[in-house]
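SAMPLE LOG
Freezer: B-3
Tube label: C17
Construct: single chain, 462 aa
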Amino acid sequence: MNELCTVILAAGQGTRMRSKLPKVLHPVAGLPMIAHVIEACRPLCATRTLVIAGHQADRVKQALAGEALEFVSQPDQRGTAHALLQTTEALAGFDGDLLVVSGDTPLLTSQTLADLLWSHRETHALATVLTTELPDPTGYGRVIRSATGAVLRIVEELEATQQERQIREINAGVYCFAAQALFLAIQSIRPSAVKGELYLPDAIALLRDRDGGVQAHRVDDPDEVRGVNTRAELADIHRILWRKSAERLLAEGVTLLDPERAYIGPLVRIGSDSILYPNVIIEGQTVIGEGATIYSGCRIRDSTIGDDSVILDGCVIQESQIGSGCHVGPYAHLRPEAQLRQHAKVGNFVEIKKSIVGEGSKVPHLSYIGDTAIGERVNVGAGTITCNYDGFAKHRTVIEDDVFVGSDVILVAPVSVGRGAIIAAGSTITENVPPDALAFGRARQVNQSGSASVFRSNHRKE
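STRUCTURE (predicted):
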């Protein structure tokens, strides 16, 4: 089997988006548009994946940091064939198959790409183009076939005749090529008479008469190959993506009380018998277990939620881990690296950041817990704050098992509270508390009999 290399075209500015953000970085369901394309390509196990970047290339590289990608620069964007020419040095000597995809097709699926690759290899073609039929093909290049159905060429709409514009089969902008044959062909591509650009589809006509020739693989669902060039098209992509996700989850045994108001990304996984109320946004690579309930107004991204957990209305959860049987909200905020062990409770108007809340522990009301490790069976009273920042650095707080923290307590890090200790309400704790100790960190109360009347009388005279 031939070696596979993937090339993702991501150099364009996307002027019709009217944005300072590169087109391929516009978010789709919580991920940059191009990230969906990368995910679709991943199961093909290409030996190398090259991203051709041009407009704001550094920003594109930064957004994709951590991925196993190679970047090729196309500072002047003079067409898709010109983009492939930029890979000549990087792919020197490569004699395998080249999969070329656009970075602005976030609905493309791994299965379609696998089918395209299989078709290309099965027919031993030099080039295989992905096509589909659209009721309205306006804006797309048309696939021109012979009387016998063979692919002859692809013509861009600007250069198509009136008759050719009636054709509904369009070029989806996804190809498989025999690499060496492609690089020979693109050397012969001439600039377009209309825009002066070098078009990759012109390679189809150049390769068709050579041994192996060209083939087309048609995808049945035209939505898969929708590109994004405008904000309106971006909105359409979201609607399609959310609908497909809802259909998938319903088939997998998840209850969506209003599927048309379930905003769930394609990489999200949810276990059976979970219930989602309307107007929930779940993005990124979130995983939710079985029997969980997510109430309205929640936004969850790149997080894990265990079986039978309940997330009440209005919660924001980002890059966090929630164990089974937990209870969160309403209106709680779990920031990155929050971890709730099983059966933990985080209540209304509580913010957790880079902290662990141990099994069976509770932070029920109006608290901020940052850079903290809370043990098991701990109760944190309303209004408690762990002061983790001294203006220069972050510091940790450790609260061991079976601690009771009274209301309105301030724990000034770095500080630790030993197992079984009790912190009196209203205390400011600046020193470590030993196990089983009762800690007071507040001024002694003084009651002055009759002073209230004197105080009021003096203020009236003023």
